[in-house]
Amino acid sequence: MTLRLNYAQKSPELLKKLSDLSMALKDSAIEQKIEDLVQIRASQMNGCAFCLDMHVKEAKIHGETELRLYHVAIWRESNLFIPRERAALAWTEAVTKLPEGGIPDELYERVRGQFSEKEISDLTFSIMVINAWNRASIAFKTVPGSADKLYGLDKAGLN
């Protein structure tokens, strides 16, 4: 795969704004383990090879187990995820692929049973941001693993 264009070079001011929003999410009300699951699931759904590669490596560095990483794609059938994580994954899927007619009240209530309103808001921003990164990486064919050294992802031991 060949990179189509380097959007970081072509639109540095816009990249900085999106990066700033991503960095602001590091201080959100959502714990890192759920943040990692959200980024992985949205990237799987969108078919973003660069982001999936990056976020699996980050999750591994953050202490996530390999089996749980393998099970993100099948989270509904897996018994490895707690109700809070399941709610986050369901919300991720709904916000990533907005259903016709919007997100059902039943799903919102299920998520609200696991997260505060502040957490739901922060979680939604997190999903919005990973979807933005997915779209840029897919549009410009960002090569998986190409930023491993820059982001310290070589420490994941998944090369």
Kindly describe this structure.
With 159 residues, the chain is mostly helical. The protein has one domain: AhpD-like. 63% of the residues lie in helices and 0% in strands. The chain is built from nine helices and no strands. It has helices at 7-10, 12-24, 32-46, 49-61, 66-71, 83-96, 105-112, 117-139, 148-151. Helix 6 (83-96) packs antiparallel against helix 7 (105-112). It is globular and about 45 Å long. It starts with 6 loop residues before the first helix and ends in an 8-residue tail after the last helix. The mean pLDDT is 95.
Structural key phrases:
AhpD-like; 159 residues; 9 helices; mainly alpha; 63% helix; globular
In terms of topology, how is this protein built?
Layout: H1 7-10, H2 12-24, H3 32-46, H4 49-61, H5 66-71, H6 83-96, H7 105-112, H8 117-139, H9 148-151
Helix pairs in contact: 3-4, 3-6, 3-8, 6-7, 6-8
Strand content: under 5%
The CA-CA distance between the termini, in Å, is 18 Å
- The level-1 CATH class: Mainly Alpha
Overall domain count? 1
Rg, nearest Å: 16 Å
SSE order in H/E notation?
HHHHHHHHH
Secondary structure: number of strands:
0
- CATH fold group: AhpD-like
Largest sheet entry = none
Unreliable spans: none
Characterize the overall form: globular
Secondary-structure arrangement, i.e. CATH architecture: Up-down Bundle
Instruction: Bin the helical content.
Output: 55-70%
